[in-house]
Design a protein that fits this description.
By secondary structure, the chain is an all-alpha fold. Helices cover 78% and strands 0% of the residues. The protein has one domain (8-132).
């Protein structure tokens, strides 16, 4: 799982983050905000569990690598959401006529859910950093 020759499990961390985003974007596209937010919480929980199972220094590097990978995928999403969805293999449903008639597509709603959950995760991370530095 974690190999120091792989920059403390960089490939493993990237896969964890991508799997989480894949599930998150799929739920968001389906309009299920609760499941999308739960997906982010599961990544946080799993990361902490793995970190606790490692020696402290390696655990901290593991968490830092997870955060770096989260930042990269967030930047990728910010730059081109459609390209990220395509790369991750997330199907984007065609907006229904009813939603389009009201000026919002299902994709717009999904992207709103993604942005909202990402902001919440970023703030949770910032708060955790400040708490840990006390």
């Amino acid at each position: 799982m974690l190999d120091e020759g792989d920059q403390f499990g960089r490939k493993f961390c990237r896969q964890m983050v991508e799997d989480s985003w894949r599930a998150f974007l799929s739920y968001a596209a389906a309009g299920s905000r609760e499941l999308g937010v739960a997906t982010i919480a599961r990544l946080d929980e799993r990361s902490r569990e793995i970190s606790r199972s490692l020696e402290p220094a390696l655990g901290q590097r593991f968490l830092a690598t997870i955060e770096e990978e989260r930042g990269k995928i967030f930047d990728e999403y910010t730059t081109n959401p459609a390209a990220l969805k395509q790369r991750l293999g997330v199907a984007v449903p065609v907006p229904s006529a009813a939603l389009a008639a009201h000026g919002q597509s299902r994709q717009d709603l999904g992207e709103l859910v993604v942005r909202t959950a990402i902001r919440a995760t970023i703030w949770e991370s910032i708060v955790a950093i400040f708490r840990s530095s006390r």
